[in-house]
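For practice. Any example?
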Amino acid sequence: MKNIDDIRIAVVSSSFRKEISDNLEKNCLSTLKSKGLKENQVDIFRVPGSLEIPLLAKKLAKKGIYDAIVTFGAILKGKTYHFEQISNECIRGCMNVSLQYEIPVIFEVLAVYDIKDAIERATRKKENKGVEGALTALKMIDLMAKL
């Protein structure tokens, strides 16, 4: 198991639908803090939209200093195919980064049909995606350290 004091996590959030990303970040950070991480162990980066998340995740993974990258955003279904394009390419890009650099890229970019669903997932007490992102990152860091 990796020493909690040695863990470094990057959070990459979309600035588009900022209120959703802010809540996801807040819940993630409070969970990491409750597990013993200090503020200086987590770096937060904001990109304009969800499609830009994989590129920044790749640049961060390439640095080799982070144990995990957690991604946040919200993509809302509209009347065009744009929703599918952004959602599919964002997750594919994040998975490619994870596999190429062998680093957990935790994908909590919410693709929803109704903005209320994103708000609920970002703010509720149970099954909060910010909390889940933090816990998944810690579990994966532990698992990767054991290998």
